[in-house]
Amino acid sequence: MLQISGLSKSFRIDGRSLPILDIPSWQVEKGEKVAITGPSGSGKSTLLHLISGIAVPDKGEIYLEGQPLHQMTESQRDRLRSRSIGYVLQDFHLIPSLTASQNIEIAMNASMPAKQRKTLISEWLERVGLPDRAKHMPSQLSRGQQQRVAIVRALVNNPPLVLADEPTGSLDWETADEISRLLLDLSSSRQQTLIVVTHDLNMAERFPKCLDIRELNRVRKHAEHPAGREGVQEVSNG
Ligand code: ADP
Ligand code: MG
């Protein structure tokens, strides 16, 4: 599903280039469920941005379903992302002026007849425990309910790969646990590959595979953590 090799990414800050990621090699098999943990600033979100083609690496190769993301133009990456990836974020990013149902519908294939879209949305809302919330605005939903809507929006086109960036980060413990199970159950029932980055150790423990990003990444310190002698690494080509 995903093959990464020789991947590096740095950001320019104050005229200096700060290395963020240096991942010699990493593979995720089709259907795998992986939780990636690691401290704030350790490059977890950056890694998801590279996998989804939102950002581009300085060096290295990323193959997504056998396709060389690192060789694609921005519009090719956009197309691949909309076809193959569902993205779930910490703060849901629902459009406040649209109902739950409309927030899902905008992610759906426009070539699908309207009636079929409606039926599919109802089925999905039922599946995530919100059968009577289709016409609610995001502001009329709890945070956990908003995340359920956002999960439907990410999954409704059946993407082979689901990425989630701190999906439980702004939820209370119990709701976080429900959302963790929902993401795992939904992606398992469709053989989807799921990569979640999270601070939430309870969520991470639910995953069959859990790793600390520092097991992949050779860069140890970042701009947010310049403490100590061994603080920020500099790169010579920066
Ligand atoms: P995490 O998700 O693990 O908290 P991030 O991937 O968001 O970490 O960030 C890793 C490091 O890269 C941080 O030090 C952050 O400040 C820096 N960083 C992230 N995005 C940018 C950017 N667009 N420009 C400059 N620095 C960035
Ligand atoms: Mg992050």
From TrEMBL:
One of its GO terms (cellular component) is plasma membrane. CDD domains: ABC_MJ0796_LolCDE_FtsE. It comes from the Bacteria. PROSITE patterns: ABC_TRANSPORTER_2 (PS50893). Residues 2-235 form the ABC transporter domain. GO terms for molecular function: ATP binding; ATP hydrolysis activity; transmembrane transporter activity. InterPro entries: AAA+_ATPase, ABC_transporter-like_ATP-bd, ABC_transpr_LolD-like, MacB-like_ATP-bd, P-loop_NTPase. The keyword Cell inner membrane does not apply. Keywords: ATP-binding, Lipoprotein, Nucleotide-binding, Transport. This is Lipoprotein releasing system ATP-binding protein lolD. It comes from Paenibacillus sabinae T27.
